[in-house]
Predict the 3D structure of the following.
Amino acid sequence: METQQRRTWAEVDLNALSHNYHIIRAMIPGHCRFLGLCKANGYGHGAVQVGIRLEELGCDMLAVACLEEGLELRRAGISCPILCLGYTAGEFAPLLLDYQITQMVEDLETGKALSAAAVRAGKRLNIHVKLDTGMTRLGFLWREETAARAVLDLAQLCKLPGLYPQGLFTHFADSSDREDYTMMQLTRFLEARERLNQEGISFEIYHCANSGAVLHYPCTHLDMVRPGLILYGYYPDGHSGILTPGPLLPVMKLKSRVTAVHAVPVGTSVSYGCTEVLQRDSRIALLPIGYGDGYSRLFSRGMEVLLHGKRCPIVGTVCMDMCMIDVTDVPEVERGDVALVYGEDCLVDEGAARAGTIPYELLCNVSPRVPRVYLGGKDKIHCQVPEC
């Protein structure tokens, strides 16, 4: 289906992705490796298309959340190193080995299972060992009272046959707002590196910097950075353009096409629940985008879209497949016009604030039924998704 006929679609500008990549590259030391986050379908943008472009740009490594995501990239022909950041059971180690996917290891038990599988296959599996320095999620627990135990377990892990312990890393819990907590985590991580070095245990790559740390704390860049949200054009703290050599560009623009415009008299209620009653004679436009497309019901009554470059608020409750927009003050709006839902003018940040969430969630929530249209490549590419 041509773009001109689509109800709702997402344009993914791969040139904007390239721009952001170069902006981030300019912020990190020359020796520092670049790991691009492709998990959650590339934050909703399309993991394969994003991964292909990042590999073309010279990205050193890609990251996924689970084995299935790594397999998708490999089967698409991506050959650069891939790190799986989530748990993979030992029984699936043959797939990690066959597809050369590097695996995160968070405890000795998992390491032993992966080691046994690698030995049976006669192969060696690259692993990155994770330390829990304050996220309280995955990893060998590194606290003052647990450090000695962690050193013993890590020493045993790194001696297991069939494994190559390539990297050691941790994850910051709040690198956008909590400098004190981030520096505490960094201190723990560096202490762990020193303690392990004293035991003769070293790694090729030490990494801990997510998007917030890349922007705010150059001391965290170490051997590799792991930008996620900033790679896709958004700042973790909403607005930090002064921290980059140039502005980041939103990679996705979510658009929807007006399917109807009605003149509606004052006093008329709009949408489910009759939660809003018009206070004036109005022109109401219908957009075929709703929570079934990943456009949150929390955007009801007030979230805005852009039509003809002007802000127009949602009226009433967002429905599963559509929502209503007040275009009274934009008289030129007519059927067929395209509304910009996400992509410019802080719309994603405003939506996240309204929904009590973060931009990551809004981008990842764009439904698979919303076709992705890729721009900035040799040709315009359309994802294989059901047409609506």
